[in-house]
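To the structural biology subgroup,

Please find below the input and predicted structure for Cell morphogenesis protein Las1, which we are adding to the shared reference set this quarter. The sequence is reproduced verbatim from the submission form. If anyone notices a discrepancy with their own records, reply to this email rather than editing the shared folder directly, so we keep one authoritative version.
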Amino acid sequence: MAKVVFTPWKTQAQLLAVRDQFYPPPTYDGPDLRSQACAKVSIWKLRGSLPHPVEATALLTDAILHDDAGKNSIFSIRATYSAAFCRFVTGLVDAKIPGMRKTMFQRAIDLGLPASFVELRHEATHRELPSLIVLRNATQRSLEWLWDYYWAKVDPHAAAAPPVSASVPADAEEVDGDDLGVKESIRDTLSPLVKGEEGEDQQPPRKKRKAQYQTTTATQLVSICKASRKGAVVLSRVLLDESVLVPAGRRLGDSLHDTFIKWEQLLQMITESHSAFLSTLTEEMVNDLAFSTQTKDTKNNACHEAIYTWLDHILRSTEWKSSRRLLSFSYLLAACEANPNHWTDMLKKVLLKEEVKRAKGAVSLSVPRTQTQTQTQTEAMIVDGNADADAGALRELGWESLELWDSRPLGVA
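Predicted structure (tokenized):
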């Protein structure tokens, strides 16, 4: 006997209509109907039996619509983003969900949810609210993930699907069609730089011309990453698999100094415009170190040594200091612990040292000081890398920081 399923919508057409309002087709040029979709979902919520992906999509979309500094304070915008994002992640990976007892990270891996989402949820729940840039990026990535996880399966043959998804068969693997086209675009964009590195008869360009070309290349790659839901992953795989960040024919112990000079600035430009790229790249790197099955002798694998050297450089060099806040330290550690080997053990030591430094830095910012140091302490409490800009925006809207509480016993003047 067929199982009866109760839904808050009367017909499948109603659900598809709401989906098209959340994810309008590329050819749609009408008014923005996302607020109507959120209102419809709130009504469905009252009826009960609302799937979590539908509710999460509405919450995340409503947070985006709330993102208006002219009407709302920066703090309320960050709080709204954080609440929507935390509910989205918790509803998927909550440890109290019936079934085998697993950690949130384990449940995330089972669902294909980026581990960085779990870490960001933990940060927003137990630490400082993440910066507005991080929250905006995480919300966009969450909506893209929800499309693949739920909405694309509602009607796989719908013609109104966002770009690329509708053309992929329902039973096809996620790595053909779409990814092949993205990969070819990335290869074409990187090709002049790669040939410039390998060609012996090509004259090296001047510094100014080289910088301009790198800027153009970075802009094109960022556009590709933002246009495709898996763009950052595909770009990371091209950089790692096609002798870009790991030179072809490299031997164990060879220096990567020239490779750093060649590619580091480009990677930083991409990270500045697309913050999700750095966390994706480092996650793909650690996956290669921890889960690669190409060889058992990982210690003498020159490719693994090069990947470890890149990770060590990103984690400890001054050039990447300002970008390290974008990394998912929890995932990198979890991957190292999941499959210990020579390079993951070394990477784990580096990660633990960096975690200690971060903890010491956070503690030093919270040490009480005298009244004469009030201004310095107020500035030191701004832990988030983007909080300075948020604080400036708050001051423009009439908000000011209060002096720190001077703790003393009752009755003491």
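Summary notes: The two ends are 79 Å apart (CA to CA). Residues 342-366 form the longest helix (25 residues).

Regards,
Lab coordination
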